[in-house]
Design goal:
Two copies of one chain form a homodimer. Chain A is α+β, with helices and mostly antiparallel strands and 486 residues long. Chain A folds into three domains: 4-276, Bira Bifunctional Protein, Domain 2 (BirA Bifunctional Protein, domain 2, 2-Layer Sandwich); 293-395, Rossmann fold (3-Layer(aba) Sandwich); 413-483, Translation Initiation Factor IF3, CATH 3.30.110.30. Chain A has helices spanning 17-27, 44-63, 77-80, 84-90, 116-123, 171-192, 238-243, 267-276, 302-320, 340-349, 360-365, 386-411, 419-429, 441-451, and strands spanning 31-33, 40-42, 67-68, 74-76, 95-100, 103-111, 135-144, 158-168, 197-201, 213-220, 226-236, 247-248, 254-255, 258-265, 293-297, 330-332, 354-358, 367-372, 378-382, 413-415, 432-436, 454-459, 467-468, 475-476, 479-483. Chain A has an eleven-stranded mixed β-sheet with strand order 3-7-8-14-11-10-9-22-25-21-20. The first copy, chain A, has a five-stranded mixed β-sheet with strand order 16-15-17-18-19, sandwiched between helices. The interface between A and B is large, with 55 and 55 residues.
Chain lengths: 486, 486
């Protein structure tokens, strides 16, 4: 029975980006809806993509001195209620366990939307002296936030993430940590996901409930919208004061430690999909792709199959342990009930960076054909050279993908000096718009209500460029980044 | 300020095993109680131990062809209710979310106690033909079972685990999978945790709610009690029939697939602690120990410190990249406010397999002193030889730990041919008792009620050894394993 009838067609990106996204996620078998409202099932291919991303980030979190730990899924209501802004921000989204073990509970338990509250309540017993600081922790877990409108990976009721939580003896150290971890997120996006991001500070209205300041990285998707891809919060003494955490400092004074928290979630998988994908499906960065190379053997007669299999096995063994010790993640598609053409589409949809085609004539000529997913560039390469060449080609591909995304972002970043121009760009062209803002919440709010754009970040590296606020003409020293966002 | 006042004393194992266990877990900073009833906080040292165990198991699960996936935390009540035995077994332990997003839910959501029900409901859409089988999945997640009496790692309301779920076209394949994964657990215990286990089948009264048969591995703790360390279930068609999952087989008949599930949890950390620990604290198997080696530099004068530091740095660099490419996990304890003796106790409590002491006289002699945690055997070794020797010593240590546990188990496994002897052994000596049982639930129940012992498993490899049931004298072909258990 042929499976050709399952050849998938996906909505074109240019036609309906949102439908394209859902098609890709479901048809490339990354994830699917589940029987639970707003929750998703992450399928093997999607989970492998998440695992590679997670492992890269986990390595960087450990390198910067943090230890992984685990805290409970549940937070008693009285604990969540301690920090006023925090509870106000999260309460509307909380799921509550009210019954367990056949009885009604004395106190409802929140399913954690984030763990600041329970961590603050726990570390009170661990922090006594400046010698106990800094306390640098990270958690990989699941959290629940009751969302009205959900989208696979981008916004789901339950999601997987890491949340870092640190405590410091000085405010300066906490501020440095907030910066350091934002930069770890930037590096993850740059070096692993091939996504250029803009780093900066959130405005008061966009910051984390309970934070003093929130930093974020913002990426541009291929529909030119912004996606917040990771946040890092300076919590000041907000939670430690609410919990009464104190330490005896070198100067013999009792103080509340300064805290930070920072998180990056499965949402980043959505960013990877939308930053690189095209009309044929996913375009994955090699460093996190579940398969970096797919081999499609081509044969008709049994004797050809045997010859091709010999060549494939040789290439395979070499790729799985390359001269420099880096294993390439390779899959060979030996299915005999679908055509090579079907297989090409199958793996293009799944975004595998390089395809190696090997047929009997290739074997005879001692070569294979290597095709790049992103631009379909096709080249013959000697079989014997593949083990050394493929890792280099993957690195080049990774760099090309980043360059392509950076060019796209540059081409779709505009400056606007008056509100009419601003509205026209946001509404007609989309993308990032750099414009002046006086700092008043009222101006920010009006722009959002009238255009749907928000201030994504006040960028760190914006050049001095004084001007007048789009709305009230108030003075501004440099431009902030506006965009419509996910 | 000296930290010597924090020198920890723990209850002696022989005095009160249970108090010893809690002392070790808390004072070695593996885990602690949390503000949430029955839930624990896993601290950095405990989480690192879990990570090494988890990564080893994850590798074996992938090698045997399984893919990691994720399914939702919540299970709608109607789904959990579909398989009768399953719901009856788990309902008393379920925690229910009844309110979320500021409203009462139309249908309560169970916080997953295990995921058979939601997985069966989801894969119905994925399985159509025998070509879609086998479906081999694994999940790393958290589950909640409302427990009355909890103990850190051993029995907590929330715990971390992996749950494997597979679907097969034939019963034979499902049975083979059930065996294969039990054997993966046995290998994890043997090769990584240095714990010898007994593999076998559970009796009807001890099997998983919803399973046709449950297999388990049982380990002996140092108080001679048994600890069930992993289970593998043949689910038959119980869940697939309840969910109406069907596939079209090669013979053109529509059938329900056969299922398996298998799980291993953070409980295994408790097993590692209790299988090897002694009066001074943890004794960790090198392959999963957070630190395999601790270096304690010894100095009084600054010039000595400099000389010692030079030697330590050389050893450290070599150990972190040994000739055969295996990095040793080393920690150097440079604290200057506690004595070497304090450090010895500190790391003995934490079970680090090897301690390297280096003082100025050692440096002058070009040597270091290496001390084994388990038996305190102390040996001088040339500094230059350490990089090559330490990995070999760690391997020998790992093997010694397994041998020691195997000898302990052998010395504490008894045969009993009549009920009086059986009761005396269980009550006075403890350990495993091999005895005859006719297979009747009534006999099993009476033994349990009168002695506290349960049938841990009907071992796979028991030699034919016919005899008469301890209780009713009924015929039995071989012996089963009785013990008091955690």
């Amino acid at each position: 029975m042929s499976q050709e009838r399952f050849v998938t067609s996906i909505t074109r990106q240019s036609e309906d980006f949102s439908a394209w996204y859902t098609d890709v996620v479901r048809k490339a078998e990354l994830a699917d809806y589940s029987p639970v409202r707003g929750c998703m099932v992450i399928r093997p291919y999607g989970y492998a993509l998440w695992e590679h991303t997670r492992d890269a980030l986990d390595g960087m979190i450990k390198e910067t001195g943090h230890s992984n730990v685990y805290f409970p899924l549940f937070i008693p209501k009285s604990l969540l209620d301690k920090e006023a802004e925090h509870v106000e921000g999260f309460n509307p989204q909380v799921a509550w366990v009210t019954h367990a073990g056949g009885k009604e509970l004395d106190e409802p338990l929140a399913v954690r939307p984030t763990s600041e509250a329970i961590i603050a309540a726990t570390v009170r017993d661990w922090i006594h002296s400046y010698r106990d600081l800094p306390l640098l922790m990270n958690l990989w877990n699941n959290v629940v936030r009751w969302e009205m409108r959900t989208r696979l990976f981008l916004r789901t009721t339950e999601f997987l993430w890491q949340e870092g939580h640190t405590f410091h003896a000085t405010e300066q150290e906490a501020l440095e940590e907030t910066d350091r971890m934002l930069d770890v997120y930037r590096r993850l996006c740059d070096e692993w996901l091939a996504i250029p991001v803009t780093s900066g500070r959130k405005t008061e209205s966009e910051k984390f409930p309970g934070a003093v300041t929130t930093l974020a990285i913002e990426a541009m998707m291929r529909d030119r919208r912004a996606l917040q891809s990771g946040t890092s919060h300076h919590l000041g003494q907000n939670f430690t004061r609410a919990e009464g955490i104190e330490f005896l400092d070198r100067d013999n004074l009792r103080k509340n430690p300064w805290g930070t928290s920072w998180g990056l979630s499965t949402r980043i998988v959505g960013a990877t999909i939308m930053a690189h994908g095209d009309d044929d499906g996913l375009v994955l960065p090699p460093r996190v792709a579940p398969y970096q190379v797919v081999v499609v053997p081509i044969w008709r007669r049994e004797e050809d199959r045997v010859a091709v299999a010999g060549a494939v096995e040789t290439v395979l063994a070499a790729l799985r342990s390359t001269p420099d010790g880096r294993a390439v993640r390779v899959h060979v598609d030996w299915r005999d009930d679908v055509s090579p053409g079907f297989k090409y589409s199958h793996w293009e949809l799944r975004g595998v960076p390089l395809r190696i085609e090997i047929g009997p004539r290739d074997v005879a000529a001692g070569q294979a054909v290597v095709v790049r997913r992103v631009d379909r560039v096709k080249e013959a390469a000697p079989l014997a050279a593949l083990p050394a060449e493929i890792p280099a080609r993957l690195e080049r591909y990774q760099a090309d993908l980043f360059e392509r995304a950076a060019r796209f972002r540059a081409a779709n970043t505009h400056a606007a000096d008056d509100y009419d121009t601003f509205r026209r760009v946001i509404e007609e062209e989309g993308g990032f718009v750099m414009a002046h803002w006086c700092g008043a919440a009222a101006c920010e709010k009006r722009i959002n209500e009238e255009t749907g754009a928000t201030i994504r970040v006040i960028p760190f590296d914006a050049p001095a460029d004084p001007g007048r606020c789009l709305i009230d003409g108030g003075a501004a020293t440099d431009r902030v980044l506006f965009a419509r966002a996910y």
